[in-house]
Design goal:
Blueprint lengths: L1 E7 L16 H16 L5 E5 L10 H10 L4 E8 L9 E5 L7 H12 L7 E5 L2 E2 L2 E2 L2 H4 L6 E9 L3 H7 L2 H19 L17 H23 L1
Bound molecules: zinc ion.
Zinc ion binds next to loops.
């Protein structure tokens, strides 16, 4: 069982876009996490846990990483969109924990596949970012022991073209599907088989005919009643 903890960054109203204040990164991250969870659960042997149970929750950075440690996660992925004071900056960035260099390949795959469906594909970097030898990002710093600990910045909500794309449900679903496929490839996950739909007993022609018969009797009764 592959246990994946998704961390939709921030809280509901955090990091509004300067282009359109109705966009808040914290809400968008949450909505995207739901889409990614659904896409990942299309594969066998996966379990997905979100660090925010509702869009209103906003646990501390340390609590988010610790949640992944406490449930024994194999993967911790913090989901974000990026911001720059320069509105022309665009692209995807990935940061993996300095403690889990093995995460580089997986994260690079995720960054590539997401960038391919942005208006102008670009992976700006896939790196570790440290401060005094420890992870710069609090969520990564607190996820000690999780084998793959990563943070992804899926485009810039300060760039008009990317904002237009990354806020769409359809884009969420498409990016989620693509990212789930990268996970599946990396961890050799099998897609769940579509459920076999057994015909309901009511669907057999004999009982259907009986039902129609009963219905026409009822209709005749109603007609009879109306004539009176
Ligand atoms: Zn963020």
């Amino acid at each position: 069982m592959l246990k994946i903890v998704l961390d939709p960054g921030h809280g509901k109203t955090t990091n509004r876009s300067p282009i359109d204040a109705s966009f808040a990164e914290g809400t968008n991250n949450y909505l995207f996490a739901l889409a990614l969870k659904e896409a990942l659960l299309e594969y066998e042997d996966t379990e997905v846990i979100l660090t925010r149970k509702t869009v209103d929750e906003d646990p501390s950075l340390a609590a988010r990483g610790e949640m992944a440690v406490n449930v024994g996660a194999d993967v911790f992925l913090s989901l974000h969109t990026n911001a720059s004071s320069n509105p022309s900056v665009y692209g995807v960035e990935g940061y993996y924990s300095v403690k889990t260099p093995v995460a580089y390949k997986l994260l690079a795959g995720l960054c590539n596949t997401v960038s391919e469906i942005l208006p102008a594909p670009k992976v700006r970097k896939v790196v570790t970012k440290t401060s005094g030898g420890a992870d710069y990002y609090g969520v990564l710093r607190s996820s000690v022991g999780v084998p793959y600990s990563m943070l992804i910045e899926m485009g810039f909500h300060t760039n008009a073209k990317e904002l237009e794309r990354i806020r769409l449900d359809e884009w969420h679903n498409k990016a989620a599907e693509r990212m789930a496929a990268v996970f599946a490839d990396f961890f050799a996950l099998e897609k769940k088989k579509a459920p076999v739909i057994e015909p309901a007993p009511d669907d057999d022609p004999v009982s259907l005919a009986a039902e129609l018969e009963a219905m026409s009797v009822r209709l005749a009764e109603i007609a009879e009643f109306l004539r009176k």
